[in-house]
Each structure stands twice: as structure tokens, then as C-alpha cells.
Structure prediction request, 169 residues.
Amino acid sequence: MKFLVACVALVLTGTTPLAAAPQQLQGKSVVVGMSPYTPARADDGTPSAARSITVTTYVSSQGRAFVRADHVGSGEGRPSSRHEKGPGTGTAHFNGNTLVASGNFGTGAGQMTVTFDPSYRTCNATVRVGLADATPLSYIGFNGKRYTATGKTVVSNVSCAIRDGNALQ
Prediction:
């Protein structure tokens, strides 16, 4: 599951720099929430746990993005973690009213697409993960153990909201 967490955190840090950020988003925050789960087992048989991830992106008045990804594990002993990034890194772009961010991580890849209504007051987000070949997803969990997927990653409860101001404060 650390794979998807890293994917989301690093993919969304890709919203920097946002030279093409629509003016309507400047001075606002985009908050995307999701619940990803990859059925997997560690080498010692430990099962994977579900996660909850919230990614907050603030677009400054100059179109620069600042991103924070908070993720919480649901299993006992699974730590929460936070990743923060400022302007200057990543691979994301705006195409009209859509923000697309993608990246390759570990043995898989992820893509997040956020679509905004014409007024930039509401948004919808989708998250996809996949593999280049038939090799199972493999990742290092927050507990330091190597996990191998036994099934496909499912991302549920995806939500998206736009808030005025800097939601990172």
C-alpha cells in the first residue's frame, strides 16, 4: 500500500510548477480524499491494511502549488505519515479544465485526474493504478516489510472539493 501512497503523494506534487494553472484556482485549495486498498501479503504472511489518503493542493496567487498528502493506515501498528512538497518538482499539467498527474513508482504506475466545472467551484477526481506487465505489484510497507499484491488495487470513496484560501494552514 505504500506504493499507492507514494504514487498519490508524488504524483500530486507533480502539480508543481503550475504555470498553466487556471486563474480561477489561484488562491484556492483542492482537496482530494480516497481509500485505496491492495490485497497483499508480506514475506512473513502479514496482510496489507486499508488506507485513507487526503491530498491538499494550494494554488498560490502566482499559480505555484504547495501539496500535502496525509495518509492513515487502518491496521494496528500502521503509522500515519505526511508528505509535503513545494513548487518546482513533478509531472502534472492542466489541459483545459482538467488536471492530470501521473508517475511511475516501484513496479507500477498511478494517475490522478481532477476535472473542474467551468466556474472552478466543484471538481471530480479519479485515480487509476496499474502495472506494465503481469508481474504482481511489489512495495515496501510503512512497517518496513516487503509486500506482494495478491489482487488488484481498488480505490474507493474518492472525493474532491475546492476551498477558498490556503487549506494547508
